[in-house]
Amino acid sequence: MCAVNYLDVPSIEKKCSYRLGDHAKACDMRTSDWEKENVIRASLLKKGDGAFVLRSDNTWRFAIVTQKVLGETPHIDFILNGKGSTKCML
User: What pTM, to 2 d.p., does this model score?
Assistant: First the structure.
């Protein structure tokens, strides 16, 4: 189950130079066709980190990690925008 924990979003946005929901700039995107590399990068994320998340409209948007859950069903929860929308990545 996804959960949104309190984060200091304005200070995270300032550090990252992106605001929640901003479109990714090509110069900031780091992509790999090698799935293992992408999994490794995702595993390094921690609460408060910024990341680009692929949205249902097929655009990459800035989001912030709210929670990282390990265990039987590991996943990472993100807050996506100022409305509080969330997404879980398994």
Answer: 0.78
- For the stretch 41-79, pLDDT in tens is 888 999 999 888 989 999 999 999 999 999 899 999 999
34 φ/ψ angles, rounded to the nearest 5 degrees: -90, 105
Rounded (10°) CA dihedral 57, 84, 79, 85 = -30
Instruction: Say if residues 22 and 55 touch (Cβ distance below 8 Å).
Output: no
What are the C-alpha distances in Å from 28 to residues 40, 44, 70, 73, 87? 18, 18, 28, 30, 21
